[in-house]
Amino acid sequence: MTKMQDDRKIVRVDLDTRSYDILIGNDLLGHAGGEILARLNCKKVAIVTDRNVGALYLDALVESLQTDGIETYTITLDPGEKTKSFDNLIAVVDGVLEARVERSDAVIALGGGVIGDLAGFAAGIVRRGVHFIQIPTSLLAQVDSSVGGKTGINAPHGKNLVGVFHQPDLVLADTSVLDTLSDREFAAGYAEVVKYGLIDQPDFFHWLEKNRTEIFSGRTARAEAIAKSCEAKAAVVAADERETGRRALLNLGHTFGHALEKATEYDSARLVHGEGVAIGMVLAHEFSARMNLASPDDAKRVAHHLKEAGLPTTMGDIDGTLPPPNILMDAIGQDKKVKGGKLTFILTRGIGEAFIADDVPPSEVLAFLTEKHPQ
Amino acid sequence: MTKMQDDRKIVRVDLDTRSYDILIGNDLLGHAGGEILARLNCKKVAIVTDRNVGALYLDALVESLQTDGIETYTITLDPGEKTKSFDNLIAVVDGVLEARVERSDAVIALGGGVIGDLAGFAAGIVRRGVHFIQIPTSLLAQVDSSVGGKTGINAPHGKNLVGVFHQPDLVLADTSVLDTLSDREFAAGYAEVVKYGLIDQPDFFHWLEKNRTEIFSGRTARAEAIAKSCEAKAAVVAADERETGRRALLNLGHTFGHALEKATEYDSARLVHGEGVAIGMVLAHEFSARMNLASPDDAKRVAHHLKEAGLPTTMGDIDGTLPPPNILMDAIGQDKKVKGGKLTFILTRGIGEAFIADDVPPSEVLAFLTEKHPQ
Ligand SMILES: NC(=O)c1ccc[n+]([C@@H]2O[C@H](COP(=O)([O-])OP(=O)(O)OC[C@H]3O[C@@H](n4cnc5c(N)ncnc54)[C@H](O)[C@@H]3O)[C@@H](O)[C@H]2O)c1
Ligand SMILES: NC(=O)c1ccc[n+]([C@@H]2O[C@H](COP(=O)([O-])OP(=O)(O)OC[C@H]3O[C@@H](n4cnc5c(N)ncnc54)[C@H](O)[C@@H]3O)[C@@H](O)[C@H]2O)c1
Ligand SMILES: [Zn+2]
Ligand SMILES: [Zn+2]
Fold it and tell me: Could you tell me what reaction this enzyme catalyses (chains A, B) (predicted)?
């Protein structure tokens, strides 16, 4: 599925009439205009970004687009998970309408997963859908959130509870922009890379164990890890676009992770998404061991690898006090993966052997959380 | 496509895996629980309604659902077009989440097109889509808005500019509830019935000319007109679900109509949607005549029929002052049907011969509006 073109990799997401390319390379920002016009007949774009990313890369993007004759309009938001709110959705929708972006035009997300999820949701609802282009700038966004068409915002009841499926028309993953990403955010994105290995690719997990330092420092192994992750995600999405089945595997670590994000009030000083996922994946492996589904050694091996990558792996690693287990349980109940009272969890039989369990008794989860709770 | 079952008519909307039934009959409210359970395995519903409709029909619906073991949760909103706002969308989304409606459960719209559009939008975005059932209670909603999956709210920039396509799983059009509808709202709905004749069914228009009084007073002709309208809409929707082509014909009269609704600030004391459509359809026929596409006699005949039905047919029929032609033009430019500067309008070659014109010069429209403007 991966093709090389000069120094670029191309991963195709096969979704019938909504198929699209993910380009991975190190000077895509400078070629954005041409790549867009090769695919869309669009005259105008509304670029959504956050202050951090905007300060670094907005000018280069705008220049590339304007050189190719595309009119631009920019909407800059605060960075951080709290930006994924109804208030900001309204602001973006308003900006896109104000720019008179038509159905043949596009919204561009320039930023991490927060900007991608929010801008994609806006693109999906303005005029009941305008074109959408992802220019992911965080590792997490390049390997995960920019691919697959899930968009959304958070609600007081939980993460990502409101949104639509709206596939992008193009994803431009410029690997050179990752150089300005903080170590902490890089590690957080790496958690999602590890996830693909843990779901169903034990060999990839082994390769990551061997190449971790190279991925964190150098570009070749890094680009390879990104392409491999995009391929893994693209395959799952192509098989199950709307998450009626297999796609739920991508939620490995996320039910626990989302509960922890909620428990820390989406305060990125305490926990960012990828960190929640890292802890969540360890918990999912430990819970699977507790249910006699997997060996406790696998949970230890996963925790070891994530820890070496600089990620938190236990609830105790989170700064400050966590709410009691029953409140965490409540957040889990409000998470999306609920089916008639019983909980749906992604559990595992070992590394690379995740599966969907839709009959997990809440009482077992509560007992487990109580045991693991640090306070 | 219409089948009779006892005293009921069934119109099927063919949309592959998203196909659904429209039931038309006179005691559907009392059988809602059974009809829903025959199609969905849902344990809980969130009912969205407005105060007018809620006072009349909510108890009967809740009773029918609870008798069949479905848990209910109700969200009651103010009546009127202004209810289609982001604020109310947030309130409904919040209520649906509060009720812990899961992906296998449903949102029910009990009301006119306002409630249907708003509740459908909420159902489309909560958890990226939960089931949705339309129980349309106005004539307009029964013949038009409840069928086809277009949902949405208004923006400061114009009508229905924000929304999603989210098909219902079932439409229950209980004709007996129309007895409490005001004459004015009945007439407004009738405008959309006439629209189907004007688009491509001259025979249906002739039948309406003959049966108008019967449709307004009695039940048999009325149910027939409703079923015929649903069939017409279902056929267009099945051919072009996402309005990339033919479906745009359903916008006959709507570009002018929406501009007038905006010009009267969605104040239903001055103008309701169907009235805007009535004036808009006359304007579309007159503009077509002005462009030498159709005979001016057709425009007169359309105006005559709508007027007899109690509908406004000219801008002068609207109470109060209208903004000047250039402001109306601006609203037309912000309407959805714009393509690279030129305007897309539904024009006609005569009664039952509407077509999509995507090259209408804005200058011609402005000149026409200036001529027709009452002030
Ligand atoms: N839609 C999906 O399928 C999906 C999948 C996974 C995660 N997500 C969502 O993604 C979000 C997390 O994404 P994220 O980790 O990218 O968070 P983010 O968007 O908040 O980015 C993290 C931080 O890095 C900064 N940043 C981004 N790129 C940078 C760069 N190149 N240089 C310097 N700073 C940069 C941002 O300003 C921000 O402060 C969560 O909201 C999560 O729910 C969505
Ligand atoms: N989604 C679509 O495809 C589509 C198509 C056409 C129109 N629409 C939308 O539909 C809306 C107009 O719908 P509407 O005309 O039904 O307006 P509405 O929902 O405001 O209803 C009109 C009035 O009638 C009252 N009412 C409804 N049913 C009643 C009953 N049985 N007895 C007594 N009172 C009753 C309501 O409370 C309201 O005051 C507009 O917002 C328009 O944009 C949508
Ligand atoms: Zn994630
Ligand atoms: Zn209408």
Answer: 7-phospho-2-dehydro-3-deoxy-D-arabino-heptonate = 3-dehydroquinate + phosphate
